[in-house]
C-alpha cells in the first residue's frame, strides 16, 4: 500500500470519531429555517435547489414539492441563499431564534447567464462566475446523467463545453476517445489536459492497453475509470489565460471533477439499470466493393461484404450487449453527511473477443465539527478487465474484412480451396483462436480536504490525496497446434509468445491555499489569495517477454523457451507557489492579477524557477445605472491574459548513458542522450476576450469567446 494511502484512510477514520461529539453542543444555540422554493413566473415548485447559509457549511436540497428544512442555523441574523441551475440565485436575511423555526420562501426567475454561479478557480473557496475574467464551462453531471444515456465520462463531456473536442476512438467496448481543449498546443509534448478529482490530480492517460502486434497500444482511457453516476459536476478551465494558478503542465487546460456529497436529510436511494446494444451499422454500405485482376485469366474479379459474409457462413460482426447496474445512497445530519455508491458493468462488443467487466465503488464522507471547519473525505476504487480485439498492425477482424480480396476466393496452387475465402489475411475465427489481448486494472483514488474559516474574512483549505493505478497489459498468442489455423500465421506466431507489461502509476497531491476577503471602503472589495502545491508522479514499468511455448495451454512467460525482461521508472515532482490579488467595485467591476512560481524536477540543473503571470478583468455592464438596452437583460464583458507551461520529458535535461556489451563481452556504457542543463519548460501564453449576454427575459443566453494562444521554447 502506498505511503499516502494509509494516512488518507487513517485521517478519515479519526475525523469520523471526532465528529460524533460536536452536534449536541450546536443544537443548544441554533434554530432552523424552513420554506418553499418556486418558479417566479409559474409558481410551480422547484425540486433540487440548493439552500445554504451563506458563509457556512449548512446546505440542503429541496424535495419534489420545493420545500426544505435547514437545521442547525446559528441564532441571530443570517443570510440564506438558494441556487439552481438555469435560474438566478436568490438571497434573504433571516432572523433565527434558538430552538425556533424561521420561514423563508423563495421565487426564482429563469436565468440563461448564471453570473452568481460558483466555479473552481484554484484558490481557497469557490468564486462567483461574475468575478472571473475568463470563460469557465460547467457541466451539471447529475442532471445530464438523469436525462441522457451516458456510458462514460468522455460521453458526459462530449458536446457540452465550447472549445472542447472529443476525437473518437476505435468504438470497442472499454476503449475511449481523446480530448483536446482549444486544439493542439505543442509539437512534441503531451496534449492531455490536467484532471483533478475532488482537488487531487489524477492519472489522465488517454491511450493505455496492451501493445498489439508490436505496433501500438489500444486506446483504453483512464478518464473512463470514473463512474458518471458518482459525479456531481465538471468544470473545464481552458488554456493558459485561465489555468495560470495550476502552474506547469496546465497549458492544455484543466478539468475539475467534483463527486457527489451527501446532504442533510433521510437516506436517499438511487438505483439505475442500463441495458443496450452496440452494432456495426450498415457494414454493406460502409465497406466498399474490392476488385482485383485474375493473373491467370485476366478477368476482373470483385467481392463485397454480403458475398464475403456468405462465404464465411456466419455473421462477421455480432450485436454486442451492454449492461450496467448502479446503486447509491446519500444523506446525513448536521455533523456528518455521506454518499456511498457502487457500479457493475458487463459488456460485449461487435467482436466476440471484445469484453468488459468492471466493478467500481465510491464512499464520500463530509464531517462538520464546527461552523468554522469542513472536512471532506473521498475514496474511490475500480477494478476490472478489458479484453480487446486486434485493431492495429496487419491483422484483426476489421482489417481482414475491410481489405477483403477476391483473389483469395480462388483455389491454391495445389488446387485446394483457399482457407481465406475472400478475407485479406486470416478469418475472424482464426484471429479469435490465436490472439488474447487484455488489460487488468486496479485503481484507488483517495483524498482528504479540510476547509477552515478561523475568521469571518479569512478562509483556508488544505488537500492531501493520492491516485494509484496498476495496469497489467498482456498480448498472448498460445501455441497454435490446429493445422486449420496454422495456415494463417507465421512460424513465430505458431510457436506462440507472450508480451506482458505491468505499469504502476502513483500521483500524489499536497495543496494549501488561503484567501482573505476584506471591504476596503464602501463598494470596494479586496480578495487576496496565496497558495502552495506539491505534485508527484511516479511510474514503474516491469516488462516480460517469452516466445516458443512447448505446448498449447502454457501461458506463463517462464514456460517459454526464450525469455527476456526489463524494468524502468520515471519520477517527476513539481513544487509551486502563487499569490493573487482581486479588487471588486460595486460587485460589478473586477480586476485580478496573479503570479505563480514553479520548480520541476525535469528542469535542467542550471534552470531556476519559472514564473507565470496572469491579469484579467470582468465588467457586468448591465448592472450599471446608465444601462438602458431593454432587450439585453444581462451583459458581462471579460478579458484575460495568462501564461502556463509544460515541463520537458523526465530525462530530457540529463546526459544519459546506455549499458552495452563491449569487447571480450565486458559490460560498458555508451552515450545515449546529450542532455541540456539549461532546459526549462515549454511556455504557453494566451489572450482571451469575450462576453456573456442574456436575452428574452433571461431565456436565451449567448457566450462569445475569442482567444489567441501561442506556445514557445
Strand content: over 45%
Oligomer: single chain
Alpha-beta content class = mainly beta
Tell me what the CATH architecture of the largest domain is. Beta Barrel
**Could you tell me how far the N terminus lies from the C terminus, measured between alpha carbons in angstroms?**
39 Å
Mass-distribution shape: globular
> What's the mean pLDDT score?
88
* CATH class descriptor of the largest domain: Mainly Beta
Give the count of structural domains.
3
- Largest sheet: number of strands, sense, barrel closure: 15 strands, antiparallel
CATH topology descriptor of the largest domain: Maltoporin, Chain A
Low-confidence stretches: 14-27
| Largest sheet: spatial strand order | 20-23-24-25-26-27-28-29-30-31-32-33-34-37-38
Count of strand segments:
38
Measured as a percent range, the helix fraction is under 10%
Please compute the radius of gyration using only Cα atoms. 30 Å
Q: What's the total helix number?
A: 11
Summarize the structure.
Helices cover 10% and strands 50% of the residues.
Q: Could you list some keywords that capture this structure?
A:
single chain, 713 residues, mainly beta, Immunoglobulin-like, Maltoporin, Chain A, 3 domains, 15-stranded antiparallel sheet, 5-stranded mixed sheet, 10% helix
Amino acid at each position: 500500500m502506498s505511503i499516502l494511502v494509509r494516512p488518507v484512510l487513517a485521517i478519515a477514520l479519526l475525523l469520523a470519531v471526532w465528529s460524533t461529539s460536536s452536534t449536541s453542543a450546536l443544537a443548544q444555540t441554533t434554530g432552523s429555517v424552513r420554506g418553499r422554493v418556486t418558479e417566479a413566473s409559474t409558481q410551480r415548485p422547484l425540486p433540487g435547489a440548493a439552500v445554504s447559509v451563506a458563509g457556512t457549511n449548512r446546505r440542503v436540497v429541496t424535495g419534489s414539492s420545493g420545500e426544505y428544512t435547514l437545521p442547525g442555523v446559528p441564532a441571530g441574523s443570517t443570510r440564506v441563499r438558494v441556487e439552481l441551475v438555469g435560474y438566478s440565485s436568490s438571497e434573504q436575511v433571516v432572523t433565527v431564534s434558538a430552538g425556533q423555526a424561521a420561514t423563508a420562501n423563495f421565487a426564482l426567475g429563469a436565468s440563461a447567464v448564471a453570473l452568481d454561479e460558483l466555479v473552481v478557480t484554484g484558490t481557497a473557496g469557490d468564486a462567483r462566475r461574475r468575478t472571473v475574467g475568463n470563460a469557465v464551462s460547467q457541466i451539471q453531471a447529475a442532471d445530464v446523467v438523469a436525462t441522457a444515456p451516458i456510458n462514460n465520462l468522455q460521453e458526459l463531456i462530449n458536446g457540452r463545453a465550447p472549445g472542447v473536442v472529443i476525437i473518437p476512438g476505435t468504438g470497442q467496448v472499454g476503449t475511449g476517445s481523446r480530448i483536446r481543449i482549444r486544439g493542439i498546443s505543442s509539437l512534441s509534448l503531451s496534449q492531455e489536459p490536467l484532471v483533478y478529482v475532488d482537488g487531487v490530480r489524477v492519472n489522465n492517460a488517454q491511450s493505455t492497453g496492451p501493445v498489439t502486434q508490436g505496433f501500438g497500444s489500444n486506446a483504453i482511457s483512464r478518464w473512463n475509470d470514473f463512474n458518471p453516476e458518482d459525479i456531481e459536476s465538471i468544470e473545464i478551465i481552458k488554456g493558459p489565460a485561465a489555468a495560470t494558478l495550476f502552474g506547469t503542465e496546465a497549458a492544455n487546460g484543466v478539468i475539475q471533477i467534483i463527486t457527489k456529497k451527501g446532504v442533510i436529510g433521510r437516506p436517499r436511494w438511487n438505483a439505475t439499470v442500463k441495458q443496450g446494444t452496440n452494432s456495426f451499422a450498415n457494414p454493406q454500405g460502409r465497406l466498399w466493393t474490392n476488385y482485383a485482376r485474375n493473373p491467370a485469366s485476366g478477368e476482373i474479379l470483385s467481392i463485397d461484404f454480403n458475398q464475403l459474409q456468405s462465404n464465411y457462413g456466419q455473421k462477421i460482426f455480432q450485436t454486442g450487449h451492454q449492461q450496467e447496474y448502479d446503486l447509491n445512497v446519500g444523506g446525513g445530519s448536521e455533523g456528518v453527511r455521506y454518499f456511498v455508491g457502487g457500479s457493475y458493468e458487463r459488456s460485449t462488443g461487435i467482436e466476440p473477443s471484445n469484453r468488459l467487466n468492471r466493478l467500481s465503488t465510491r464512499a464520500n464522507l463530509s464531517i462538520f465539527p464546527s461552523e468554522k471547519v469542513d472536512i471532506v473525505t473521498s475514496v474511490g476504487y475500480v477494478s476490472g478487465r478489458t479484453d480487446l480485439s486486434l485493431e492495429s498492425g496487419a491483422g484483426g477482424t476489421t482489417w481482414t474484412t475491410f481489405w477483403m480480396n477476391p483473389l483469395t476466393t480462388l483455389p491454391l496452387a495445389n488446387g485446394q480451396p483457399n482457407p481465406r475465402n475472400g478475407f485479406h489475411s486470416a478469418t475472424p475465427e482464426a484471429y479469435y483462436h490465436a490472439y488474447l489481448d487484455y488489460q487488468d486494472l486496479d485503481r484507488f483514488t483517495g483524498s482528504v480536504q479540510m476547509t477552515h474559516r478561523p475568521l469571518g474574512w479569512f478562509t483556508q483549505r488544505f488537500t492531501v490525496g493520492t491516485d494509484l493505478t496498476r495496469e497489467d497489459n498482456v498480448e498472448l498468442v498460445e501455441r497454435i497446434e490446429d493445422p486449420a489455423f496454422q495456415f494463417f500465421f507465421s512460424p513465430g506466431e505458431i510457436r506462440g509468445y507472450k508480451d506482458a507489461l505491468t505499469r504502476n502509476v502513483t500521483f500524489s497531491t499536497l495543496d494549501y491555499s488561503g484567501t482573505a476577503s476584506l471591504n476596503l471602503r464602501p463598494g470596494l472589495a479586496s480578495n487576496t489569495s496565496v497558495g502552495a502545491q506539491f505534485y508527484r508522479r511516479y511510474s514503474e514499468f516491469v516488462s516480460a517477454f517469452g516466445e516458443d511455448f512447448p505446448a498449447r495451454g502454457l501461458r506463463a512467460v517462464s514456460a517459454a523457451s526464450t525469455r527476456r525482461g526489463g524494468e524502468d521508472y520515471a519520477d517527476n515532482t513539481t513544487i509551486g507557489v502563487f499569490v493573487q490579488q482581486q479588487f471588486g467595485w460595486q460587485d460589478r467591476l473586477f480586476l485580478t492579477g496573479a503570479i505563480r512560481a514553479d520548480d520541476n524536477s525535469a528542469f535542467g540543473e542550471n534552470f531556476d524557477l519559472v514564473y507565470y503571470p496572469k491579469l484579467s478583468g470582468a465588467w457586468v455592464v448591465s448592472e450599471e445605472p446608465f444601462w438602458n438596452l431593454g432587450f439585453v437583460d444581462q451583459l458581462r464583458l471579460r478579458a484575460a491574459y495568462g501564461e502556463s507551461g509544460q515541463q520537458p520529458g523526465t530525462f530530457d535535461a540529463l546526459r544519459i548513458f546506455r549499458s552495452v556489451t563491449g569487447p571480450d563481452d565486458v559490460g560498458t556504457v555508451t552515450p545515449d542522450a546529450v542532455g541540456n542543463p539549461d532546459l526549462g519548460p515549454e511556455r504557453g501564453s494566451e489572450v482571451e476576450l469575450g462576453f456573456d449576454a442574456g436575452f428574452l427575459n433571461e431565456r436565451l443566453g449567448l457566450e462569445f469567446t475569442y482567444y489567441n494562444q501561442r506556445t514557445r521554447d
